[in-house]
Design a protein that fits this description.
The structure is a homodimer.
Chain A lengths: L1 E2 L2 H16 L8 E7 L3 H16 L3 E7 L5 H13 L5 E4 L9 H7 L11 H9 L8 H12 L8 E5 L6 H10 L3 E5 L6 H6 L3 E4 L17 E4 L3 E2 L5 E2 L13 E2 L6 H21 L1
Parallel strand pairs in A: 1-11, 2-3, 2-4, 5-6, 5-7, 7-8, 8-11
Antiparallel strand pairs in A: 9-10
C-alpha cells in the first residue's frame, strides 16, 4: 500500500498559489482567524494554519474572544472584522459555544471573504457545482489529494462516510462535479462495511476514531481519511485503522500527515483568491 | 407489481393543506405563474398546476411574457411580481430562453415566496437538511409518494439517477434527511444498471424516455419515475419502461398519473405555507 502524504500535495498547491500571488502586485493577503475560547482542537488547527500561511508568504491575524462573550457583542465584533478592508479572508473556528448563533454568523460573513465556504451563497454554489465560490477547505483538500496524485475520479464508484455540512455533504458534491458515482453513508446506514467495500475510492469523514478497518476496504481501493481523532493512547488517529488496511487498499492517506496538511494549503490558496477577487 | 398512483397521495396532501388553510382566517393564497413564451411543456404544467390549485381552493394568476422580452425588462417585471403584496408564492416556468439571466432571477426571488425552491437560500437549506425552507416540488413529491404510502425510507439503499438542481441533487438530499443511504448516478456512471439494481428504492430523474428497464431494477424494488417524456409514438412516458419491470419491482409509479400529480399538490401545499409565513 502506498501512503499518500499531504506534504507533496501541499507543495504543489503552493506552486499554484505563487503563480496567483504574482497578480496581486505586491499586496500581501491577510487572513482573520476568529476563535472563541481555548479549545485544544481550535488551537492546534490555528497553529497549523498560521504556519502554513507563513510558509506561503501570507499574513494572518488572530481575533480571540472569551468563551463568555455574549451573542450580540460577538456579532458586532464579527461584523467589524468582516468589514475591515485590511482583511481578505476569514476563518471561523467551529463549532462555536452553544450560546452563540452560528447560523447568524454564516449569513453575516461576506461570501467573497468566506474562504472556508460557510455562507449560504458558497454552500449553494458547491451544491450546484458552480466553481466560482469557495468550497469548505477540507472537502476540497480530498479532491486535491487525488488530482495532484493524478488519480482518476470520473466514473469511479466513490463512497463518502459522513454527511456533515463541514465535510461529508460538500465532499459528495465535489466528487459528483468530478463525475464520480457517489454514495453517501452515515450512522443510519445498514451494512456499512459492504457499501464501503464496493467503493473504488473511499472517503472517511465520520469523526470517529478507527471506525473503519480492513473489512470496509475493497481490494485495490484508494482510501482518504479526513478524521482527526485521539485514540485510546492519546495519539492522533483517523477514522480508518491505517495499520489494518495495508493488504487491501492500493493507497491511503495517513493521519497525521495526510489530508490535514492539504487542508491548510487549500485555505492559503483560497485566501490568495479572495484577495484577488477584492482587487477587481 | 403495485402501481403507486399520484391521485391518492395528492388527496392526502389536500387534507393536510385544508388543515393549514384554516389558520389563514379567510385569506385565499395566490400563486403567480411566470411564463416566458409558449413552450408546450410549460403550458401543460401550467394547466395542471392551475387545475390543482383550484381544486385546493387556491388562486393563481399567470404572468406571461413574449419570448423576445429583453433581460432588463424581464427583471423589472419579475421584481414587480415579487414585491406585489397580493402574491404569496411564485412559480417560474423553466428553463427560461437563453438570453434571459436565470441565475439573476434566482437571486431576486423572495425566499418566502419561492415555493419551488430555486433561490440560493432555499437550495442551501435543502442541502443542509433544514426543513424551514421550500424544497423543489418534484423532489419533495417523490418523498411524499413514499411517506403517504407508508413505505419506510430510513436505512434503505436508495439510488437516484440524475443530478440536476431541479430534481436529482435536491432529491438525494431529501432522501439523506430521511436517513437513506443514497447513491447518485448520472450520464458518466459506469455500470449504471448494476448500481440501480442494488437499490431498494430507485428514483429515475434523468429526463430520457424509457432509459431504464427490467435490467436496472432489483427484485422487490420500489421504483419512482420522475421523468415526463414523449415516446416514439408521441405518447407521454417516464424514464422507466414501466411495462418491462412488472416482474421485478414490488411497486412503481406510472407516467402519467404518478409523481406528476403529487408535484402540483406539493406546490399547492407550499403556497399555503408561504401565505402563512407572510402572516407572521
Amino acid at each position: 500500500m502506498i501512503a499518500l502524504k499531504g506534504a507533496q500535495v501541499s507543495a504543489a498547491i503552493k506552486e499554484q498559489a505563487e503563480q496567483e500571488i504574482k497578480k496581486l502586485k505586491g499586496k500581501v493577503p491577510c487572513l482573520a482567524i476568529v476563535r472563541v475560547g481555548e479549545r485544544p482542537d481550535d488551537l492546534s488547527y490555528e497553529r497549523g494554519a498560521k504556519k502554513k500561511l507563513e510558509s506561503f508568504g501570507l499574513e494572518s491575524r488572530s481575533f480571540v474572544f472569551p468563551e463568555t462573550i455574549e451573542n450580540e457583542s460577538f456579532q458586532k465584533e464579527f461584523k467589524a472584522i468582516n468589514e475591515n478592508p485590511e482583511i481578505d479572508g476569514i476563518l471561523l473556528l467551529r463549532p462555536l459555544p452553544r450560546h452563540l448563533d452560528e447560523k447568524a454568523i454564516e449569513k453575516i460573513i461576506d461570501p467573497q471573504k468566506d474562504v472556508d465556504g460557510i455562507s449560504p451563497e458558497n454552500i449553494a454554489k458547491v451544491f450546484a457545482g458552480d466553481e466560482t465560490g469557495f468550497a469548505p477547505c477540507t472537502a476540497e483538500a480530498v479532491i486535491q489529494m487525488l488530482k495532484v496524485n493524478q488519480i482518476p475520479i470520473a466514473g469511479k464508484r466513490v463512497t463518502v462516510v459522513g454527511r456533515s455540512m463541514v465535510v461529508g455533504k460538500p465532499l459528495a458534491m465535489l466528487f459528483l462535479k468530478e463525475n464520480a458515482t457517489v454514495t453517501i453513508c452515515h450512522t443510519k446506514t445498514e451494512n456499512l462495511n459492504e457499501t464501503c467495500k464496493n467503493a473504488q475510492i473511499l472517503a472517511a469523514a465520520a469523526g470517529k476514531a478507527k471506525m473503519l478497518n480492513q473489512d470496509a476496504v475493497g481490494e485495490g481501493a484508494i482510501v482518504l481519511d479526513v478524521g482527526i481523532n485521539v485514540d485510546e493512547n492519546g495519539k492522533l488517529c483517523g477514522d480508518v485503522d491505517f495499520e489494518s488496511i495495508g493488504d487491501k487498499a492500493a493507497m491511503a492517506t495517513p493521519v497525521p500527515g495526510g489530508v490535514g496538511a492539504v487542508t491548510t494549503a487549500v485555505l492559503a490558496l483560497h485566501l490568495v483568491r479572495a484577495a484577488l477577487s477584492r482587487m477587481d
